[in-house]
Design brief:
Helices cover 45% and strands 12% of the residues. The protein is of the alpha/beta class and 469 residues long. It folds into two domains: 268 residues, Aspartate Aminotransferase, domain 2 (3-Layer(aba) Sandwich), CATH 3.40.640; 99 residues, Aspartate Aminotransferase, domain 1. A seven-stranded mixed sheet has the order 1-7-6-5-4-2-3, sandwiched between helices. Helix 8 crosses helix 10. The relative contact order is 0.15. The structure holds pyridoxal-5'-phosphate. Pyridoxal-5'-phosphate binds next to helix 8.
């Protein structure tokens, strides 16, 4: 078994796979039943006999790749999962082999330094003060922002809610939560927010829904009334969650007005920018996040719009101390005083063993450059706008809202079941892969245009395919 020879087998197969996918060859989705896949991959035999190397490895990978969902295929329009820049996959390989679980600096100084750098790069984009290198300086100065990379936006959102809870109830770690804490969020907030309320022990009913307009955006003028009403019930709002942008239809909340309200009330503002914070890289679209600097925390996923393989998400906080205080706890084998020329992230995260998540993203940034990534985000947002204009002109089709990002929801004239049937048939044919969502009381087909290889012609072909069904 030679690592070098086997890596060549793998990289050759992946390069061919990418080339075919980009050219639109192969099925974009191929969902055979689980038992059949297990059998066709011969999992039991390999587990019993070993030998997955050389020509066996090549044959296995060949079969395995036929059961993948081809994200690089231009007809992949379904979910907000990045179509990874191939260079970033090499980052995954490096991480896999070095396995530097870097929650404490000594377990991966290179990975920890990259995470620190990536967080500072993101903080600068938000308009917050990047953290100083020097630990003593950081500890003294509250003006530094900070953050941590997490395994996904859901975990980043949960971490943000923990930080907000800690600010509202500083002794929560010792005594638990008071029963009257609530969270304010629009009904369209990502489900990880309600889940966080459940995990925190607040219960999902503690998520109080804010009034929204027809696009699902929080109405800032209504905030004071809602807030006062909740206070009169003797409830204590611990945070307000805004979306940038929303999951279902990709619409941005008005962050500046919301931020000003939260500042007046000393209320923690968390912006869930898992998908849409990447618009900060586009000079043309960054205005959609105007006011972001007023937030206390921000979730920003690199594995959505930044061409980074799963998982790489950031939780950023305006005041770095808020995150450190959230997890003040003893674990003597990790948290004893020691000399370290870097930073330990273990103090800032739910996780103990933590993968070095920064390298994969850094490989994209290093390959495309900041301007290249910004141009990519802009291209995808413009494509959604062009698709919207095209679909609106087609008889028998309508869009849910004019897009503000690269998410576009549309439906064919007919009932909700028809939309689901269309999606099922496209999936079964393996010709196009869409998702679907419920918005404003109706079921829509949903495109998340993540793929730099998808063109307007592909969307036109999709509509012709749907029309012919
Ligand atoms: C707005 C928003 N927040 C959070 C998440 C969850 O992120 P993850 O899938 O990385 O856990 C999503 C996922 O689609 C999202 O759209």
């Amino acid at each position: 078994m030679s690592f070098l020879a086997d890596s060549e087998v793998v990289t050759r197969a992946l390069a061919a796979y990418c080339q075919e996918s980009v050219a639109g060859q192969g099925r974009v989705i191929n969902q055979e039943p689980l038992e059949q896949i297990i059998e066709k991959l011969d999992l039991n035999r390999y587990a019993r006999d070993g030998g997955l190397t050389g020509p066996e490895l090549a044959a296995f990978l060949d079969r395995y790749l036929t059961f993948t969902t081809r994200l690089h295929h231009p007809a992949y329009m379904a979910h907000q999962v990045a179509v990874p820049c191939p260079t970033a996959a090499l980052g995954s390989l490096i991480d896999g082999l070095t396995n530097n679980a870097m929650a404490i600096y000594e377990m991966g100084p290179g990975a920890a330094s990259i995470e620190f750098w990536v967080l500072n790069w993101m903080l600068q984009k938000v308009g917050w003060q990047p953290a100083a290198f020097d630990r003593q300086k950081r500890a003294r100065d509250p003006s530094y922002a900070g953050g941590v990379l997490t395994h996904g936006g859901s975990l980043a959102n949960l971490t943000a809610m923990l930080a907000a809870r800690h600010r509202a109830v500083p002794d929560v770690w010792a005594h638990g939560i008071p029963q009257n804490l609530v969270l304010l969020a629009p009904a369209g907030a990502h489900y990880s927010i309600a889940r966080a309320a459940g995990i925190l022990g607040l219960g999902q009913n503690a998520v109080r829904h804010l009034e929204v307009d027809a696009l699902g955006r929080i109405i800032p003028e209504k905030l004071a009334l809602t807030y006062d009403r909740i206070r009169q019930e003797d409830k204590r709002p611990m945070a307000l969650v805004a979306s940038a942008c929303s999951t279902a239809v990709g619409i941005y909340d008005p962050l500046e007005e919301i931020g000003e309200f939260c500042r007046q009330q000393h209320l923690w503002l968390h912006v869930d920018g898992a998908h849409g914070a990447s618009a900060l890289l586009s000079p043309k679209h960054q205005y959609r996040l105007k006011g972001i600097e007023l937030a206390d925390s921000l979730t920003w996923d690199a594995h959505k719009m930044l061409q980074t393989p799963v998982l790489c998400a950031a939780l950023l906080v305006r005041d770095h101390r808020t995150l450190d205080q959230t997890f003040e706890q003893d674990a003597s084998y990790l948290f004893h005083d020691k000399e370290r020329p870097g930073v330990d992230f273990a103090h800032r995260t739910i996780e103990c063993t933590k993968a070095g998540l920064g390298l994969k993203f850094f490989m994209v940034l290093g390959a495309l450059g900041e301007a290249g990534l910004g141009a990519f985000v802009e291209r995808q947002y413009e494509l959604a706008e062009q698709a919207y204009e095209y679909i609106q002109r087609q008889p028998g089709f309508e869009c849910a809202v004019q897009p503000q990002s690269n998410i576009l929801c549309f439906r064919r004239a007919g009932d909700d079941d028809l939309q689901l049937r269309i999606r099922d048939r496209l999936n079964a044919q393996g010709s196009f892969y869409l998702s679907s969502t419920f918005f404003g009381g109706k079921r829509y087909l949903r495109m998340a245009l993540m793929n730099p290889h998808t063109r307007l012609e592909d969307i036109q072909k999709l509509l012709v395919t749907i029309q012919s069904m």
